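Q: What would this chain look like folded?
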Amino acid sequence: MAYSDFTLSDLEQKFGVKHQRKRLQFNSKPIQPTERLIFELEESTEMPIKTEKAKSEWIVVPILKELRLLNQKFFTIYSGETLVGEKETGLLGECDFILTKDTQSYEINVPIFQIVEAKRNDLEEGIKQCSAQLVGAKKYNEKKGIIIEKLYGCTTTGDIWQFIEYSDKLYIDDKKYYLGDINDLLGVFQSIVDYYKNILQ
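A: My prediction, written as structure tokens:
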């Protein structure tokens, strides 16, 4: 299997990881985007964005770069890398984006956030894949002796973003965030980065 092959039922049956939909509470405040990000997102509206690749280049990457600079390069961005969480159970595969704590390592070190581009704009499919990647990331970290109480991820169509928290179970956010409300979206991302800063500094 690959991450994209898992369903939420598979994760419960194979790994005992249950899921629940609820409103995730982020201690977030809206963040004003820089002029650079505003320009890049406005420019993206002029482009024929039809594919996941185009969305990543014109929308997702500029947002992640903005967050990385805002946080003094606290995290590194891996794009299209393979994450082997647990090979024997099928928890492996290529990931759209993996954010890791920046340790100047060429290889994936401590994965803390997964981003899945929703194929065919199907957020539900993206949720399944992102959930599997979060389970894989936890196992990847545990093999290194790294225990993180909460891992976060999200799936996105570019315009719509839906977050997931993985702690004692997978919590799928009832609320969706929109690119048009970029201030709120950046605020949620920042609250998640702040959480990791507090436990990984």
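The first helix runs from residue 8 to 15.
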